[in-house]
Amino acid sequence: MKKKLLLIILVVSATVFAQIPENYYQNAEGKTGMELKQTLYNIIKGHTSYPYTSSNTDLWDILKEADQDTTNPDNVILIYTGFSVDGEQEYSGGNGWSREHVWAKSHGGFDDDPPTGTDAHNLHACDISVNSARSDKDFDNGGTPHSEATECLYDADSWEPRDAVKGDVARTMLYMATRYEGTVSNEPDLELIDVVPTSGPTFGKLSTLMEWHHQDPVDDFERNRNEVVYGYQNNRNPFIDHPEYADSIWGTGNAPIVIRVDQLPAEPMSSEDVEVEVEIVDPDGLASAVLNYGFQSDNYSNQINIQQLSSDTYSGTIPAQNLDDTVYYQITAEDNQGYSVTSLEYSYVVREA
Q1: What strands lie across the sheet with 68-69, from one edge to the other?
Q2: Exposed, middle or buried: residue 271 (CB in 10 Å: 0-12, 13-18, 19+)?
Q3: In the 8-state DSSP scheme, what is residue 94?
Q4: DSSP labels for 144-188?
Q5: How far apart are CA 187 and CA 282, in angstroms?
C-alpha cells in the first residue's frame, strides 16, 4: 500500500499539534556537522524515563497514546503492518501486540532498562510475529516480501519497512544516534554506519536511512507522536522538528529535502482540480521542482513544473479526473548543484461529485 494523503485532513481535527517550545533549539542555530550533533545531544539528553512495564505509567501507556489510531482512539497502529488493533489488549499472552525497539537492543546491549531501553522515541507498537521476524536486522532496501507485513521486504541481514513509515524509521534512528553518545555510565554510544550487517552499538545502513528520510517527509501522525512523547519524556526528536538537521550532520551531497506534502482537497470529486503543495529545503537553492502523475503505480505519464509560493513552498495542480480514477503522483526536485531527490508515491481515488 502506497503512502496516501487521503486521511490527513479527515483526522487532523482529532489531533492537536503544539508548537515547538520557544527557544528549544536556540543553541543549535548556526551550527553544522558534529558541532550541531553535540549541541542537539545537550538539548535532548537526560530525558524523563518511564519503566518498561509497571502498575504505574509505563511504556504500554505511552505507546497507546503515541501510536493511537486517530480514527479509532481505542486502537494503536502497528508500525510495519499498518494494522489497527485494540490498544488495551497489550501483549495478552502472545495474542495482542508488542513494543518494537526500532534501534534493536542487541545493538548497544541496553535491554529494556531505562533510559535507552525505554526511550519512547525508539519504541513503536508492532505485531508480535513481525517484531520477531525483523529481530535485530539492519535497515536497507530489498529482499523478499514478509508473509504478514506484505509491504515490508527482508533478507538474512536487513529489513525494509513499508513506504509509509520509511521516513519515520529513519528519523527514529537519527534520533538514537544523536541522543546516546556514551558520555553517561549507563548509556551506550550509538553510531550509524554505511555497511550491512553490523554488530555492537552500530547500525546500518546510513545512506539508505538518509534516502528514506528524504523520500518520506514528516507527516501529521509523526508530528503528533513527537508531541506525545515530549509530553512524557520532556525531550523531542530534532529530526521531526527540523528535518534539515540530518543533512547538516551526516550529509548526502546536500540533496534537497522534501519536508511536507499536502493535498487539497483530500478526497477530490470528478469536477475538482487537486492542488499539491510541497515544502522543499535545500541550501544550494532549487533549480527545478516537478510534479509527476499518472494512472498506474510507478508509471507517470504527465509532468507539471510546480510554482514557487514562498522561499521553500511550491505548488502544482493536477487537473480534474474521471470518477473512480486512481491518480498516483510524486515530486522530483533538483538543486543548483545538480543533486536531486524523488519523494515516495502518493495516491487518491476520484469520488462522485
Answers
A1: 68-69, 72-77, 84-86
A2: exposed
A3: G
A4: EEPSSSTT-EE-SSEEE--GGGHHHHHHHHHHHHHH-BS-STTS-
A5: 34
Question: Any idea which of 21-30, 62-71, 255-264, 289-298 has the lowest mean pLDDT?
Answer: 255-264
**Are 281 and 312 in contact, with CB atoms under 8 Å apart?**
yes
Alpha-helix residue ranges (DSSP H) falling in the chain: 8-11, 33-44, 59-66, 128-134, 166-179, 206-215, 220-233, 238-241, 244-250
Cell matching residue 268: 477530490
pTM of the model: 0.77
∠ CA 30-225-48, rounded to 5°: 75
DSSP state of 280: E
DSSP structure class, residue 63: H
pLDDT (0 to 100) of residue 353: 74
- Residue 148 CA from chain centroid, whole number: 21
Distance, CA of 248 to CA of 270 (rounded, Å)? 43
The C-alpha cell that represents 41 in the structure block: 545531544
